[in-house]
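Quick review question:
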């Protein structure tokens, strides 16, 4: 079996290595346009910030080392320009010699990845404009930083890569602004979560400007300013991270089916619509595990999983890829963010009867040094109690919260299935009732009518209008609000009518819930708890 693989970063090298490991007699060849293979694209921002000190730390394998280890032939600086499915051949340009060569295959794997989108604006080619896709991109930016050429930087794009670059630039003492043309940073996150992160970044010296479109980059020979639809901003460097575009232009006229974003359409076995041609990684589009609809998942994790599954299928197995959930995690200054599954709006669009809850919970035993909080938004279907999604932010291990949710969603679990899991506990790691379990309990209480509460999103939409704010904190903390000390509530409260609309607010939500339960026992029928309390919400009295 002669297997030809186009592309050698994540998916291509994973497919090649697994293929040869299970079937060493297969002939496997990688053709790749770049000089490097198997580099850590997700680590590029951390090289910029000097967290990864040496360039070698970004290169997982050299072509020579990979070939010796696996038995795969690797041809670098070879750009495939045409695929001929009828002849089972590809044409490729040797970038070192300028000569075009033809390569035959029995099975063809397309793993060409994607390139950064470069907007067609004035100044895009000035010195000081950077992208963040290859090791050379990160190396060039860090060299400019170390040479003292950058004092002010503008990052265009408020997604994970853009914000990770912003964090690492700020850590080097550079003044950083982030602009994004959409209404929020962190696409795919709930608006209220994104807004919280925006405020947090501002407190750490990183200013974000949403609904701000890049119109031009100004300067004579190098970057001097950035022109947006709102203002002109001073800048010594512009880092553009507004998305990526699948590298599939060379497939024109092949008959290979492409999605709307030009990614290659594959089935659950990573097969294209043409026999013996497959696609994996950032150039392919897969499916969402929850909805079954097309989903683009340009992640190193997805790429490696897809490559491994494809290799096994090429070796005679029939393994299906279940798809993705949009799981992601990122480190920001003093705050980590993670998500998986559907957002509230996406779940509603899919026809679910959505119920959501937001909690602020301890991330480990509160008395343990370094203890902090998770802010968690959990989403489920009211009828089936099926978990649909989770978003979490906090300075601690947000990945463990997201990963528990991934397991639950992947196994089609309900809230009842996961409310009493035997999750690990010790003071340095968690709380006696795990923060994930705590949030599940809140959501179930909300569904079952044990708590009547309002989410921060609902509060910002004005759904608590007409309610009198009651401060249920340990001590008075809300100016202008009536304060009620829970520890002293042992009878009816003469200052409130039994049917009076009362919005109970404490620091995080728990004490307000306890007050609500107490008031119910005395016949108060019209109370609401503000989820997230003053920790997450900005109150307007």
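Suggested answer, residue by residue:
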């Amino acid at each position: 079996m002669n297997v030809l693989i186009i592309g050698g970063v994540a998916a291509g090298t994973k497919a090649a290595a697994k293929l040869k490991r299970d079937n060493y007699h297969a002939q496997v060849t990688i053709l790749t346009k770049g000089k490097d293979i198997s580099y850590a694209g997700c680590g590029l921002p951390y090289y910029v910030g000097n967290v990864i000190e040496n360039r070698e730390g970004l290169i997982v394998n050299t072509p020579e080392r990979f070939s010796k280890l696996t038995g795969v032939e690797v041809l670098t600086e070879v750009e495939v320009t045409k695929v001929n499915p009828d002849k089972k051949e590809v044409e490729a340009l040797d970038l070192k010699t300028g000569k075009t060569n033809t390569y035959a295959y029995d099975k063809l794997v397309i793993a060409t990845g994607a390139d950064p989108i470069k907007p067609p604006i004035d100044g895009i080619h000035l010195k000081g404009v950077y992208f963040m896709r290859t090791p050379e991109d990160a190396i060039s930016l860090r060299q400019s930083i170390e040479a003292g050429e950058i004092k002010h930087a503008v990052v265009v794009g408020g997604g994970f890569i853009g914000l990770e670059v912003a964090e690492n630039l700020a850590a080097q003492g550079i003044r950083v602004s982030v602009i994004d043309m959409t209404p929020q940073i962190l696409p795919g996150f709930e608006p209220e979560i994104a807004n919280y992160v925006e405020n947090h970044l501002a407190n750490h010296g990183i200013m974000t400007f949403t609904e701000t479109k890049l119109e031009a980059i100004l300067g004579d020979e190098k970057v001097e300013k950035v022109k947006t639809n709102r203002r002109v901003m001073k800048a010594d460097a512009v880092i553009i991270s507004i998305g990526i575009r699948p590298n599939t232009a060379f497939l024109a006229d092949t008959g290979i089916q492409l999605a709307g974003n030009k990614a290659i359409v594959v089935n659950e076995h990573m097969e294209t619509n043409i026999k013996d041609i497959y696609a994996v990684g950032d150039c392919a589009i897969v499916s969402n595990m929850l909805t079954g609809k097309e989903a683009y998942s340009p992640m190193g994790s997805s790429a490696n999983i897809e490559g491994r599954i494809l290799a096994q299928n090429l070796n005679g197995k029939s393994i299906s890829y279940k798809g993705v959930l949009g799981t992601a995690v990122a480190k920001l200054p003093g705050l980590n963010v993670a998500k998986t599954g559907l957002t509230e709006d996406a779940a509603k669009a899919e026809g679910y009867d959505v119920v959501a809850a937001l909690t602020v919970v301890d991330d480990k035993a509160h008395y343990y040094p370094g203890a902090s909080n998770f802010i968690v938004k959990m989403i489920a279907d009211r009828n089936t109690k099926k978990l649909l999604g989770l978003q979490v932010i906090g300075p601690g291990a947000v990945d463990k919260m997201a990963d528990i949710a991934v397991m639950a969603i992947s196994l089609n679990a309900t809230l009842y299935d996961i409310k009493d899991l035997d999750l690990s506990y010790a003071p340095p790691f968690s709380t006696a009732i795990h923060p994930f379990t705590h949030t599940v309990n809140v959501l179930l209480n909300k569904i079952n009518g044990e708590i009547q509460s309002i989410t921060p999103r609902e509060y910002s939409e004005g759904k608590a209008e007409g309610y009198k704010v009651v401060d249920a904190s340990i001590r008075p903390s809300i100016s202008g609000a009536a304060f009620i000390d829970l520890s002293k509530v042992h009878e009816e409260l003469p200052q409130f009518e039994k049917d009076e609309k009362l919005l109970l607010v404490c620091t995080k939500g728990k004490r307000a819930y306890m007050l609500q339960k107490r008031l119910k026992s005395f016949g108060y029928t019209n109370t609401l708890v503000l989820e997230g309390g003053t920790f997450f919400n900005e109150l307007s009295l």
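Why it works: The longest strand covers residues 354-362. The longest helix spans residues 300-314.
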